[in-house]
Design goal:
Strands 1, 2, 3, 4, 5, 6, 7, 8, 9 and 10 form a ten-stranded mixed beta sheet that branches. Helix 16 runs parallel beside helix 19 and helix 27 packs across helix 28. It contains 39 helices and ten strands. By secondary structure, the protein is an alpha/beta fold. 52% of the residues lie in helices and 8% in strands.
Length: 851
Amino acid sequence: MAAPEHQRGPVVTAVPAGWALISKRPDTYDDYAVLAASRAPFTARQFNQIVVRNSPGDPPASHETGAAALPWVWFTRSKRGDTTYVGVAIRDWTADFDATNRPIAETRYFCVALDDFLSAGFTYSGLYEAVRGIGLADRDTDDPVELTAPAAPPPVETVDFDVAATAAAGLLTGSVALLGGGAELAERLAVLDAVAALLPSGAKAWLTAAGWADFGVNHPLRLAFTARARTGDLAVDLRGTDRPGGGESAYRERLLELARGRGADAVRRHLAGLGHLRACDPVAAVVGLEELDRPRICVSAARSGRLTPELVRQLDEAGRFGDLTPDEHELVVRAYFEVAQPRDMWADRALLAGHRLSTMDELVEEVVRTRAPRSFWTADDLLHVAGMADAAGAHAGYVRALRALGDAPLVATRIAPVVGRLVEHPQWSAALAPLVASSDALSVAVLRRVHGSEGAVAPDLLDLLDREHGDRTWGRYRRLFAAGGQVDPGDLAELNQVDGDAVPLVLRVAQHTGDTARLGRLFEAFLGLARAVGHALRPSWLSLLRDWPDPDPAVRAALDVALCRAGEPPRQDLVVADERYWNALVAEVDTTPLTLPQQQAFGDALAAGLHRGWGGDLAAFRRTLGVLSRLADPHTRPHLSTPRLVARIADEVAANPAVLGQPWLQPWLPQLELDPRLRAGVLRTRLYWIEADATPHEVAALVARVHASGVLGTDEIAPIVLQRWRPAPSGWMDFLLALNTHLLDGGDRNALGRCVRWAEFLMADGTGSLLQPAALHTAQWRLLPQLQLLTHLMRMAVKAGWPEVRSEAAVTLLRRLHRQVGDLLRGVGAGERGAPRIRLPWARPGEHESE
């Protein structure tokens, strides 16, 4: 790195300077005015204001001797726009007199831009030496003059360092009066330079100074030799030291401390480099001064574990890395890597490259391996560190660390996106090739970039991989993507395990090769993988299934089965599908086991594939519904008939109610019955379609639902059931008992009346031909003991005081039952001779008999 400005040798260069001559014409009564001036950087009027405003006082008598005698030299600061100027004014007597016979003085004024002043290496005395021989009275042009900074002479101790430090510190808060200076102007200017040298060189932007000033005048000069200090001035006697009080003394103490530790010349060189500190700010001045000790501070912080990236940056910005010994250099850099965050390393990559250690590869490897898992670095963090490693030429060490991180569970998943970015840049190729070639995930990631749209890959990396690593993991996957490569379903399955989204890419790449046989084998292998997926298919797989060409109905059916298993609607319009498609679809489903969630997804997908009005064509409706019935087999796929699919069918039936009587709709009637629009019609239809071998409970449940719907009454229902259903001899009694239960469970208050009416129909011919005595006898043995048990339980509940047993409804029912049992015990037609005697099933002979 180039040395900073303050560490370079003095630069001797020509700089432009504005000028003005202020005097008056001889033998006239004129006042002092600008007699001549350059056209820039100020006007004549502005030049005059600058000189007069900063004047150290009125000229002394012409016979004055000593330090107060002319010539007077003072230094100004002024500004035009964003440019600050340093000026020098020289006032001396001329040989001329005015009309009143008074001697005439002239003031020559010169100014240069502060940036030129600093870059040329000017001092106050150097600026004076550069202009003192330039006469302006006879100048016939208004061009600026060119000044050449004289080579800096060896430093001469014109004033004690601590005295100059006192004056410099005092200037940060006020004006300083220098007392006891020498009579020679050169000596006094050297003192001004000595004091100014202990301030940041940028202080020339606010500092004004004079080789002599009249203490009786309220001049604005900040630093001046004078016979006596004014009120408010800090008096600094060059024959002693006066410590300034207040906060600025911190600056003085730090000056003295650094001079003792680093040497006075080192302090001055450092301050000469602080040209950017152009505000009169004691705190900023102390901070700038501290920069001199930055190397020691950094080394101390590195040893104690307190180093920060900001300290290292400050050391670099100050150009002080060169002050470190080799051991200190390595200590600071290693300590930096212990505390810097990945974003710091990225921001400081040029700094680290500029101060690269010989062991940078090993250091980067160590930092990444140890800190990435411990600090939970993200992929972005690793990329930031990669940028630093790239700038520092530590590619090999960084990649070795990535290989090690592949075994760390918390970081391994973040490696692929990092490598994916690095493979774009050729400078990483040599280091990355072995890592990529030995890794399934990284090989596939690179191939996806080569054949997909996810970014570029450096050509020389591909060349290295193909040329030197074709027999490794890379080669196996490379052949799978390559035209004419061998197709092994096992390789495709392995690819799916590594990166499922790469599988469709292989097929899409193969589509462009024109090798139909290879493409067919790949497609069959892909379908095999799709059939084995027990969860949702990847979006990339679904996209391929939607886009794949399907001229053959069997291929189309296989694609649609895969789509429907994932809950996606089929590509085929189901209503216009031909028989070959439907047979292939059913066969594919029969050979592909569907989990319960897949059955539900499949049914919903089929529903999505049925557009509104799909049942308008009765033949197509029948054909499609027949296939749906085969697919929704209640024994093998009971969950495929989802509510959405049933709703699609119900919409078409509601639009054409006449189809309710069609036998091919019968399998769907139980589910269509749930639709309020179809309930009445479906129940009526189901009565007519009662199967002869239906159980009494099934028939009773259907009849109970018909009763609940109010569609038909008992007198209308019974003839239909009696005509359609022929149960076993005991079946009607079972039907009545089950019907009573279903009606009561449904909250029917007239359950008993409906069942009695049903019994009347069954015994309508008076012989009880349908309701057999044997069936009644069997029912007695089944139900009356249960009634006896219930009676005992209720008696026990009454004794226990259960309030529910004493409810009004329960009491009413018991009384009604009591009367009916009494009637039963007295016999039908009591009082008639020859009335039958009734024996209870559990009674002993002679007990509880009644005529």
